[in-house]
Structures are given as C-alpha cells and as structure tokens.
Amino acid sequence: MIAFKLAIRNLFGAGLRTFLNVLILSISYVVIILLNGFYQGWGEQARTDSVKWAYGQGQLWHASYDPYDAFTLTDAHGAIPESLNDAVNEGSVAPILLAPATVYPEGRIKSILLKGISINQKAIALPSDLMIATGDEIPAMMGTRMAKSMNAQLGDFILVRWRDANGTFDAVEIRIAAIFNTPMPPVDAGQIWIPLKSMQEMLRLDGEATMIISGDESIINADLSDWKFQTLPALLSDINELIEMKKVGGSIMYLILLALALLAVFDTQILSIFRRQKEIGTIIAMGMTRKQVIAIFTVEGAMHAILAIFLGALYGIPLLVSMRKNGFAMPEYADDFGVPIADTIFPAFSLALILGTILLVTITTTIVSYIPARKISKMNPNDAIRGKIQ
Amino acid sequence: MNNKTIITINNLAKRFPIGGGEFTALKNINLKFEAGEFAGLVGPSGSGKTTMLNIIGSLDNPSDGDVTLLGTSIKKINPKRASSLRKHHIGFIFQTYNLMPVYTVYENVEFPLLLLKKSAAERRKAVLDALEWVGLMDKIKSKPKQLSGGESQRVAIARAMVKRPELVLADEPTANLDKENSYHILDTMVKLNKELNTTFLFATHDDKVIKYLNRIIRLEDGKVVADDIIKK
C-alpha cells in the first residue's frame, strides 16, 4: 500500500515526464485496439459476406469437383439428386453448373468461368432473379469488377464461346441483364452468370449441376451418393487463414509501437534509478527495505500503464465509437488483396480485445519497470546517498 | 541528562578493498554514547568519521569488532531488522539535504511517518510540530527547489526529528551553509536535543559545529586520538 501511495505521489510529482510516457502508452492502447478491431471487423464482415454471397449454409460438391483445379470442370457435374427437387423449386437451394468459356469484349479475347444458377434461388444474395430474358437472347449478369474489366454496360451483348459435354465448340451472344455490386470477388471477378436452364442446354447437361448451395442447413447436411457435403466451417477455413495471415502482418506495426512505448518506460526507469540514486539511498537510510524500494519503482512503472488507460479512454472511446459507426472506407485497390473486402469496414471491438490489450500492456510495462528496478537491490546505500553510483 | 547507554562500540575496525589490497578506514575504536549527548566525530577528510557514522546507522557492517545500538548488535543484524532499527530509532541529516525533489516540504517531512504507518491525523500533527520547531510553517507547500540551503537543511532536520528518534546522525550538516544559516541550524538542533533528549552524533570538521558540541571525539587515520567532554 505504501509503495502504491508513494508511487502515485512520485508520478504526479514528475509532471511532464509522466505525462509523455502515459501519452505514448495510451496511443499504444488505442492503436492496438483499433488495428485488432479492424481485423476483427473485417473477419466478421468477410465471413458474413461469404455466407451471404457465396457459401450459403454449406454446399454439395460433385465428387469430381476441385475448385483449385480448372481441369476437373469437364467431368465435375452430375444429376441433381431427386430428393432436392422440391428445395430447388422453392429456391432454398441453388444448383450451379460451371464451365470454362471465352468472351470477346470489344474485339479482345478473355477467358472466363461461366456459371449457371437457378434464377429463383434464395440460398445466396446473388440477384439471379434479375436475369430476365426480353427475347430469345440469354440474359446474363456480372459483378461490377468483371463489368469494369470488360468495359461492359447494362444491355450490352457479349459473344461467349464454350465447349459442350461432347467437346464441341459453340458460341452465342448473351445480353447483360444485371450488374451487381458485391464485396465478394469470388462471385464477381472473371465470371459471368447465366440462368441454369440456359447453361444446361448450352452444355447439353440437362438436370445436372457442379455444386448445390444450401440456404438452410436442415436441407443439406451430409454426403449424397456422388455428392460430397462441404460444411460451412470447412468452406470458411481459407478465409479464416487469410485473415489470420493479414493479422500477423498487421500486428508487426503495433508490436513496434508497443516496443517504442515500453522503451520509453524502460528508459525512464533506468534514468530514474541513476538520477534518483540519492533519493533511493536516503529512503533506505530512513528505514525502507530494498524490496519496498523495488516495489515503488515497479509500481511507478506499472502506474504509467494504468494512467494510460484513463488517458486513452478520454480520446480513444470517442475515436473508436466513431470508427465503429462510420467504418474505414477501403481504397479501390483493396480488391487486389484477394480476400473479401467491403467498401467500408466496420471495426468490431469486443470486451475480450479491450481487456486483453489492457492486460498485455500493463503486464509488459510492469515487467519492463521491474527489470531496471532490480538494480536497486545491488546499490550500496552509502554510495547512493552521495550520488556516487555511475 | 539520562545516563542510559545507547551506543557501545567495541574494538571496531573497518577495511575496504582497494585494488589488490585493503584500506583500513577505522581501527580499534572503543566508545560509548549516553542518551541525550550532543557529540561529534571530528577530524580531517579521510579520518573515518562518515564510515563510523554509517556503521552506527546500520548502513554498513564492521569488518571487526561490533557496535551495539539500543541493545542490537550491528554485526549480527539482518537487513530487515536494520531497516526497522533505522525506521523507528534513527534520524539522518545529510550534507546535501537529500530532500525528495518532487515532494513538498510537508510531504518530505511526512515521509518517515508513512513508513511507520501512522494515521493521517497523527502524521499531520507530528509534521506541523516538526515544522514549527524548525520555523518553516510558511513553507509547507513549497518544493525543495524553491528553498534556500538553510531552509532545505531545516526541512531535513524536521524530517529526521518528526518521528522523535532516540538518535540523530548528522554528516557534515553545515558544510553547504553560510555562517548565519549554520548557527540557525545548530541552535535548532541544540533546542531539540534539550527539549526531546535526542542524542545527536555529528561527523564534522566545521569549527562552527565544534563550538556547540558537548563531547568531541577526534579521529585521525581511523583511530580515536582524543575524547573530550566539554563543560558548558
């Protein structure tokens, strides 16, 4: 208790020196919480968007389908299980048929993935119901990234060339009936969506699909003959790994900041011990034990971290609340990161994150304060009283 | 004067390692101090005054012989007991005042009472009494850097006296003070010695201090060469 009382007195007595250390530690708190909150918010959004736009509540993949091997697409298709007919008709599952194709926008050649999806599906957020034919043409839709890369506008006709199930090349002009905006590059970049029926006819694969997305885990939750069930956690594992990787990269920045703050505290403690050696010698002469003196210096250092919590809260809470409300606007090139990134990321600050950060900074500050304070135990009080220790 | 013996020094010797050899700072010292004495260890620099004061104050250990302070052997004392002895029974006054720069005058004087875990009310009364003894009631809220040398040393005296110790050890207390301040300080200490029967032991070579002493112990090269009681 006495160490605490004296440490408080010393800290407030030290004025500006204390304030500067507390300020830099408070910045560490806020930045660590902000960066982690950003990654947490990004992760949550990415997972939510992935479920909403691409994964649904799980998927059935044809046994031959391998998303990392484009060559499997030729054989990766099979008849949609009859047990799912009702769900398909209701739109609670979305059968999708995939095929590699080529488009010729403005006289250029571009390889794409052509995807057929049932237009009545409600399993994912793709606006497939916008693919409405106005005549004999095949209505198509694409994301804004794809439209931009092809310089395509709504209503444009695009020539598509593909090979059917027999290996025969064919071509047709499709009309862009919808351009949608999605935070999910995996359902946008390099692909064009058309109605499943048209796709099945083009490939001569009536009633077949490559994968079936479930909008409700009670409908599909296990393997079905030639179809392998992919659980949602398995589908999200890639995204989780990617976000963890980005998080590790980002943590380097706040580790540097934390190291700088701790260095400031360490430096102050070292300076204090040499600058205040007369004081240390004197209080030992007055009857304080070395352990008590070490405790004062350690508590003094740790108190920096405690005071930083209050200072950080003073400006950090309004800042974090504003960030939570308004989010971080992400630059356009963020699409190149290869992971789902929304236009605006809203950081998420959990209690565990805030308490964890406070605990991390307080413990490391206490350790950093204790290390130089141990030097006191080696001081000769007679030399310290005279300021003779170098 | 109370005749209780508070310090007994028997065959005290102190040696310090220097280079490959040893330097003998004190040799074969035998002394006794009674409660209420106003005594001084007098001698040139290097004669062993401060070393002896440090051993008596349990800040250092004897190489040979022993010092018994208030019935406790300094040679056998452990660090915790030594801290307790200093905390309860000894006040220190240093040449350079050694006040805590970030504390006010009040807080500096209050410090020894915090170590003794006195209540806030007890502390307040004792601090105000001590500051009144040294005539610094008007400087309660000042910081040490706002004080003159004389005022700083008076704060140091108040800090040493606030817990009413049996023994005050003062190492060259007037060395940094002018004549007027030195006499003021010494008058204050004499007053406290008489009023509270506190034993004062000085290490000094200042003639101004020597004039006030009731007992002068002269040291040369670590040995006692004279021990004179001064009748006043």
Descriptive report:
The complex is a heterodimer of chains A (390) and B (232). By secondary structure, chain A is of the alpha+beta class. Chain A folds into 2 domains: 2-52 and 238-385, no CATH class; 59-230, no CATH class. Chain A contains 10 helices and 13 strands. Chain A has helices at residues 2-14, 16-55, 85-90, 144-150, 196-203, 232-275, 277-285, 290-326, 351-373, 381-385; strands at 59-62, 78-79, 93-103, 110-117, 138-143, 157-163, 169-180, 191-195, 208-209, 211-214, 227-230, 328-329, 344-345. In chain A, the strands form 3 sheets. In chain A, strands 1, 3, 4, 5, 6, 7, 8, 10 and 11 form a 9-stranded mixed beta sheet that branches. In chain A, helix 6 packs parallel to helix 9 (351-373). In chain A, 43% of the residues are buried. The model of chain A has no long low-confidence stretch (mean pLDDT 87). Chain B has a single domain, classed as P-loop containing nucleotide triphosphate hydrolases (Rossmann fold), CATH 3.40.50. Chain B contains 7 helices and 10 strands. In chain B, the strands form 2 sheets. Chain B has a 6-stranded mixed beta sheet, with helices on both faces. In chain B, strands 2-1-4-5 form a 4-stranded antiparallel beta sheet, covered by helices on one side. In chain B, helix 5 runs parallel beside helix 6. Chain B starts with a strand and ends with a strand. At the A-B interface, helix 1, helix 7 and helix 10 of A face helix 2 and helix 3 of B.
Provide a concise account of the structure shown.
The complex is a heterodimer of chains A (390) and B (232). With 390 residues, chain A is an alpha+beta fold.
